[in-house]
Amino acid sequence: MAGKPSKADKKIAYDAKLCQLLDEYSQILIVAADNVGSNQLQNIRRGLRGDSVVLMGKNTMMKRTIRVHSEKTGNTAFLNLIPLLQGNVGLIFTKGDLKEVSEEVAKYKVGAPARVGLVAPIDVVVPPGNTGLDPSQTSFFQVLNIPTKINKGTVEIITPVELIKKGDKVGSSEAALLAKLGIRPFSYGLVVLSAYDNGSVFSPEVLDLTEDDLVEKFATGVSMVTSLALAISYPTLAAAPHMFVNAYKNVLAIAVATEYSFPRAETVREYLKVGAHIN
What we know:
Blueprint: H1 7-24, E1 27-32, H2 38-48, E2 52-56, H3 59-73, E3 89-94, H4 98-106, E4 110-112, E5 124-126, E6 129-130, H5 138-143, E7 148-151, E8 154-157, E9 161-164, H6 172-181, E10 186-188, E11 191-197, E12 200-202, H7 211-231, H8 240-257, H9 263-278
Antiparallel strand pairs: 1-3, 1-11, 2-3, 4-10, 5-9, 6-8, 7-8, 11-12
Helix pairs in contact: 1-3
Protein name: 60S acidic ribosomal protein P0
Organism: Hevea brasiliensis
InterPro entries: Ribosomal_protein_uL10, Ribosomal_uL10, Ribosomal_uL10-like_insert, Ribosomal_uL10-like_insert_sf, Ribosomal_uL10-like_sf, uL10_eukaryotes
């Protein structure tokens, strides 16, 4: 009967798996895994099964493996991953569309209660309305300065109350009240922090860009280059047509103002004569 693998054996197996994934996949999502439980992570793995692999591990081990593998293979692009391995993060290797995989990951968020000492990721607002609690529970509301009234034998909150602000730690009174109200204000799941694609690293916001967005940004860039080139009289491919047109306008203006003429100038003279005659 084989014994349990030692820590050294586990490290060797992990190292080999990460190296294999680095060689096999060119696209990676770096995700934050704060407050994500093992069952939730298992559901995410099942949801992504097919063309994606989720790999968690200690940052030091991942950094070491990536660094050594980069030296062995000569692929220095892998080194771009190392600065991204900060905090409680994991890697999702995929051969699918990065945007679609990111959207699939976002589906697996789980509601969570406000635990004492937890730093609130969002503002928590208690809505007005009947709480279903009997009048003996009013002490919770009084401690937190929440305006209430007794309506039909139950406590009713009169106005919306910002109970916890984003970034604040959850206190015992806030946690107890939210538990009594059955409010699970926070939701946790894997959050995409960065994307890696063939050595390039970019923020997840880039994944939301559509073709129309890219065309618009390109057109804006061309317009800025054109304006700058025209302002400093520097010929570029974008500015050249405008320069030729402006130069031609100047030649026409000189021809109209003097005796110098050429076919197009005569056409302009005729238009000016007709316009002057009409006026």
